[in-house]
From TrEMBL:
<dbReference type="InterPro" id="IPR052047">
    <property type="entry name" value="GH94_Enzymes"/>
</dbReference>
<dbReference type="InterPro" id="IPR012341">
    <property type="entry name" value="6hp_glycosidase-like_sf"/>
</dbReference>
<dbReference type="InterPro" id="IPR033432">
    <property type="entry name" value="GH94_catalytic"/>
</dbReference>
<dbReference type="Pfam" id="PF17167">
    <property type="entry name" value="Glyco_hydro_94"/>
</dbReference>
<dbReference type="InterPro" id="IPR011013">
    <property type="entry name" value="Gal_mutarotase_sf_dom"/>
</dbReference>
<dbReference type="GO" id="GO:0005975">
    <property type="term" value="P:carbohydrate metabolic process"/>
</dbReference>
<keyword id="KW-0328">Glycosyltransferase</keyword>
<feature type="domain" description="Glycosyl hydrolase 94 catalytic">
    <location>
        <begin position="304"/>
        <end position="724"/>
    </location>
</feature>
<dbReference type="InterPro" id="IPR010383">
    <property type="entry name" value="Glyco_hydrolase_94_b-supersand"/>
</dbReference>
<dbReference type="InterPro" id="IPR008928">
    <property type="entry name" value="6-hairpin_glycosidase_sf"/>
</dbReference>
<protein>
    <submittedName>
        <fullName>Glycosyl transferase</fullName>
    </submittedName>
</protein>
<feature type="domain" description="Glycosyl hydrolase 94 supersandwich">
    <location>
        <begin position="11"/>
        <end position="290"/>
    </location>
</feature>
<dbReference type="GO" id="GO:0030246">
    <property type="term" value="F:carbohydrate binding"/>
</dbReference>
<dbReference type="InterPro" id="IPR037018">
    <property type="entry name" value="GH65_N"/>
</dbReference>
<dbReference type="Pfam" id="PF06165">
    <property type="entry name" value="GH94_b-supersand"/>
</dbReference>
<dbReference type="GO" id="GO:0016757">
    <property type="term" value="F:glycosyltransferase activity"/>
</dbReference>
<keyword id="KW-0808">Transferase</keyword>
Amino acid sequence: MKYGYFDDTAKEYVITDPRTPAKWVNYIGTIRFGGLVDHTGGALLCAGDPALNRILKYIPQLPESEPKGETLYLRIRENGSYKILSPFFTPTLDDYDDFACHVGLGYQRIVSRSHGIRTDVLIFVPNDSPVEIRDIKITNEGNKPVEIDLIPLVEYSHFEALKQFTNADWVPQTMMSEADRDENGLLILKQFPFMRKETKHNFFTSNHPVDSFESDRARFLGNNEYATWQAPEALKKESFSNYEARRGNNIGALLHKLGTLAPGESKRIITQLGQAKAEEVAGLVHRYRDEKNVASAFRELASFWDDYLSKFSCETPDEAFNTTVNVHNPRQCYMTLNWSRYLSLYQLGLGSRGLGFRDSSQDTMGAVAGAPGEVKDLLRKLISVQNPDGSAMHQFFPLSMEATEGDALEEGHKLVYGDDHLWSILAVCAYVKETGDYDFLREKVTFYDKKLPLEKRASAPVLEHLLRALDYTKTHTGMHGLPLLGFADWNDTVNLLGDAESLFNAHLYGKGLLEIMDLLEYLGETAKVTELREDYEVMRKHVNEHAWDGEWFIRYFTEKGEPIGSSSNTEGKIYTNAQSWAVLSGFAEGERVNKALDSVFTHLNTAHGIKLSSPGYTRFDSEIGGVSTYPPGAKENGGIFLHSNPWVMIAETMRGNGDRAYKYYLQINPAAKNDDIDTYEIEPYVYAQNILGDEHPQFGLGRNSWLSGTASWTYQAATQYILGIQPTHQGLRIDPCIPSAWNGFKVRRVFRDATYIIEVDNSENICSGVATVELNGTLLDSNTIPVQEPGSENRVVVTMRKATSNADAPPIARAATVS
Ligand code: IFM
């Protein structure tokens, strides 16, 4: 609790000490307009694409004391001199009496008190407008009248984010600002690069008369910028210069003279930072100058989140689990749906990345219940960058829809990632199971072909795209009949040459086949199911014949047929994903399930989570690739790569080991890190991508928070496998695998527009085994509840029981999930 606490009633995390070990951030808006806001009020905003249309200049590598993107100054006038304060703590770093940054659902609210002045700033983006609102309330809480000036400030980036950092002549020569007054005399400061003047431009304004402004950073800081953000020269002057920048580092600094605030008196100023066409600016500005409209936009934001979160909520005996599953984890899933791995403090959205095919496919699975419409849109985009041969482009830029092969372009490597295309199968199947929108499978979507304009590209129904994905893997195998690795599989950093084989791809293919067979069975396409079942059995045979190492499964074969992830290796002997995915695919036979999962526990588990592999590679080896560029214990080289932890949880539930699955869940739950936060360092309210492993001297240090597949998969592990509430084609399946200490739990689930209030009784304290399911008072003979009428509310009572002898009625679930 050193830097803050969870406020479950408000669904917030509240940071009470701004000196956090790293910046802790939140996201506002969406990728259409939005970005991240840190806990000291800095912001990185963009519209549509962080690389191609960036608005604010936020340089994460600068010291934490620097303001980034946006800040706010207060100036108190005392006996002819000025006292400068930062209500956000940076950049003046003064002592404060109180500080609270409320990390909310799609908003940030920073409340601080210093020198008797309380500043309360609510920061958010309305659901339907490209504007960042900062609703600022200043209150004189002292016992003397105080004369106050308020100076909100933004610093712009060139819209081409990378150019901002690679060209220090062309960029500043093009950046310009202009001041406009509206019909009420209120100032609108516009900013644009010369070439974009006639199209959209950025604007910064407020609902209060502005005394004067600065638009050039050198003038604001002063003395050719040898002044600092702590003591800008402009703040020592009565008024700003009103200079309209014609080049240089463009900022917007608006000096508001609020006059004298009597004790107890408050003033409210609303700033707006937006991007729009010239003719649209006035309307937007007008709308959000009105306090009532701002309040109602904030209410609409809250109702978006209420609706999004209303699809699933649980009450279990574990409060930290409830908080994470009911609020923070699904919120993170929505942010990954928007931002993929593109824009965070770690993934800087500068140009080469875009949205990843594999990443975004997985992200959709965590957000599909809450945001099915947005998921469907993203699925369409993803499928449209699949190649006609069934493989997929690795990533695409959301504004231009241009796709690239990513790092697979590296010389000497294959041009594809061997796994990408298969992820869309899991994503589309999850979408149709959740929504029942089977028409989507028939919708025609184009294949990607860079050389052809969109209207000339071939197209096929979504289902055909998925079948081609399977076919690509079936027809691209190596010497053991296992799928080729390509440049890499899920693990981007093991880059083997030539026709190396990947067990991950084999398992993902197996899981994809299971999903498609389940779907086609439901659609009555039995002939195709028979054909695919044969493919499944062929791959299952290859895996078990070639990849069993004695105690665990092998992870790769090099092009010479040498194993990686085997006891015969000296480094990288065992890999987590080879074990968990052998269970998820259903390929692991008999006792191999238990042996593989127990090997994970014995060789890879640590107090901070499960490592990706062990032991780490100790020197750079160009034949194994990127993984050996990290020291042992970091990232994919034996680090705790959190994304792969929920896969082990899921596998454990599939063998019925709820206690082990839950142990794994708890050890990575960020909410549980709050007490050892100086080791972990990053936000306790979202999952990170990586924690340093036990081979590293800084074991336990987290990095790369927010944008990680951990969000989606941990959410799926918690809701669908531990609590066991699973959408299926036929209805809602209830199959919990919980810690035996739990006596039961409750869930409220909205599925295909009907509500299910589910109560699970586990008074026998077992992990799994559903004995009875009652729907609205009627006993069912299966643990899958058929889809109920839209709008209906349904009571579901579930009992979990041990089967003690053959004569007992056997549990109706958990019979044989693991074959
Ligand atoms: O699977 C990848 C992901 O696509 C990007 N981040 C790293 C992961 C593991 O290499």
